[in-house]
């Protein structure tokens, strides 16, 4: 059976050739967590994951798994199982042989192999496919086999490197749900690499957003989405991304205002991290769903800002309105079905309780 193991990465540095890809990185994954490493291509996600798996030597720092120092342990002694983006199945072996290969190699007794393969096949709905060769499987089925091959190892920690990237959109969302259910059933520790924010948001118990080999923020998806620590995180998450408006803070008659080039927002109740610096240029961020468009003449539309529609993107269960407001492009999300033409005037208000403020120079949340 699977043991629950935490993973602790300390002051990790990894040099690849002349590049320092990761420097002084700390990451704590609790036992049983589903941690997602999210970031753009080339930011070091795979490098970090493969170093935990023992496929890449570390240049400095340490990696602990289940309380044991594994920094220099052989990959097979780490209690980890890795699933890659490319399935890398053995083409001449059927599903059952593919799944049991590693166990046969390491001399696991036959009844035990059968038990584990059956269990994994049941979990992944591969039972009817055990006799098939990889060529007779769809992409989604092949990736299930690759996951099954990791499952039979009954590892303490499962590592996934963009396992769904090669699948079409529909299969990707199906298998994504299956992975989440698998995690709920197994309760095993999982670390999952992706550049897909939807995968990160839906799968993670906590997510680490990475850029340039550095973890920018580590928290629950809800925390990271609602309170991004910097402009990179703010704009990397969300579709469309957070609206950003430049301006300054100004105190006036007991209130604190964000005064932008285009509009002002009352930020008196904003949870500043320190004392607000009124001298520094800042950026106000507001998610499209916190820009509330209404209709002309509707209650609350008086005194609201008047934007003009430049584009409407229907998404089925919601739509994105792109509004021009004195030259600023502001995205608003609503569920209204009333048709809106380009050029239509739309009153909108900004929900001040859900804005973010960043220092313009550093990009850091204030
Ligand atoms: N063998 C290598 N030698 C030198 N640089 C490498 C090597 N492998 C990867 N890199 C560099 O390390 C960085 C991180 O790569 P990687 O971890 O694969 O990123 P990600 O998985 O986030 O897309 C990239 O800039 C990449 O060019
Ligand atoms: Mg990668």
Automatic annotation (TrEMBL):
Keyword ATP-binding included in the entry's annotation: yes
SUPFAM superfamilies in the cross-refs: MOP-like, P-loop containing nucleoside triphosphate hydrolases
Stretches assigned to the ABC transporter domain: 2-237
Biological process per Gene Ontology, one example term: carbohydrate transport
GO MF, any single term: ABC-type transporter activity
Keyword Membrane: yes
One Pfam family cited in the UniProt record for this chain: TOBE_2
Transmembrane stretches, start-end: none
GO cellular component terms given for this protein: ATP-binding cassette (ABC) transporter complex, substrate-binding subunit-containing
Keywords, comma-separated and alphabetical: ATP-binding, Cell inner membrane, Cell membrane, Membrane, Nucleotide-binding, Transport
InterPro entries listed in its UniProt record: AAA+_ATPase, ABC_transporter-like_ATP-bd, ABC_transporter-like_CS, ABC_transpr_MalK-like, ABC_transpr_MalK/UgpC-like, Mo/tungstate-bd_C_term_dom, NA-bd_OB-fold, P-loop_NTPase
Designated name of the protein: Carbohydrate ABC transporter ATP-binding protein, CUT1 family
Organism: Paraburkholderia tropica
């Amino acid at each position: 059976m699977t043991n629950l193991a935490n993973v602790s990465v300390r002051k990790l540095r990894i040099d690849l050739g002349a590049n320092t890809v990761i420097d002084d990185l700390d990451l704590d994954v609790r036992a049983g967590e589903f941690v997602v490493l999210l970031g753009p291509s080339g930011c070091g996600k795979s490098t970090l994951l493969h170093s935990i798996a023992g496929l890449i030597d570390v240049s400095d720092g340490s990696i602990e798994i289940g309380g044991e120092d594994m920094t220099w342990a052989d990959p097979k002694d780490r209690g980890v199982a890795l699933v890659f983006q490319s399935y890398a199945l053995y083409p001449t072996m059927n599903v059952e042989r593919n799944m049991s290969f590693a166990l046969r190699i390491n001399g696991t007794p036959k009844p035990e192999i059968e038990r584990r393969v059956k269990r994994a096949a049941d979990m992944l709905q591969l039972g009817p496919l055990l006799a098939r060769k990889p060529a007779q499987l769809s992409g989604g089925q092949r990736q299930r086999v690759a996951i099954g091959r990791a499952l039979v190892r009954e590892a303490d920690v499962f590592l996934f490197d963009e396992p769904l990237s090669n699948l079409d959109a529909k299969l990707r969302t199906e298998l994504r749900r299956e992975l989440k259910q698998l995690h709920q059933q197994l309760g095993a520790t999982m670390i999952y690499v992706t550049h897909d924010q939807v995968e990160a948001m839906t799968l993670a118990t906590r997510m680490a957003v990475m850029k340039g080999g550095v973890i920018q923020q580590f928290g629950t998806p809800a925390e990271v989405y609602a309170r991004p620590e910097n402009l990179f995180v703010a704009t990397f998450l969300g579709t469309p991304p957070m609206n950003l408006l430049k301006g300054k803070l100004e105190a006036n008659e007991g209130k604190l205002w964000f005064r932008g080039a285009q509009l002002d927002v009352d930020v008196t109740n904003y949870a500043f991290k320190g004392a607000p610096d009124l001298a520094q240029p800042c950026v106000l961020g507001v998610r499209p769903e916190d820009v509330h468009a209404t209709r002309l003449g509707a209650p609350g539309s008086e005194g609201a800002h008047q934007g003009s529609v430049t584009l409407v993107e229907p998404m089925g269960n919601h739509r994105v309105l792109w509004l021009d407001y004195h030259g600023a492009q502001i995205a608003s999300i609503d569920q209204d079905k009333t048709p809106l033409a380009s050029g239509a005037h739309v009153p909108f208000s900004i929900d001040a309780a859900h804005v973010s403020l960043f220092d313009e120079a550093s990009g850091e949340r204030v």
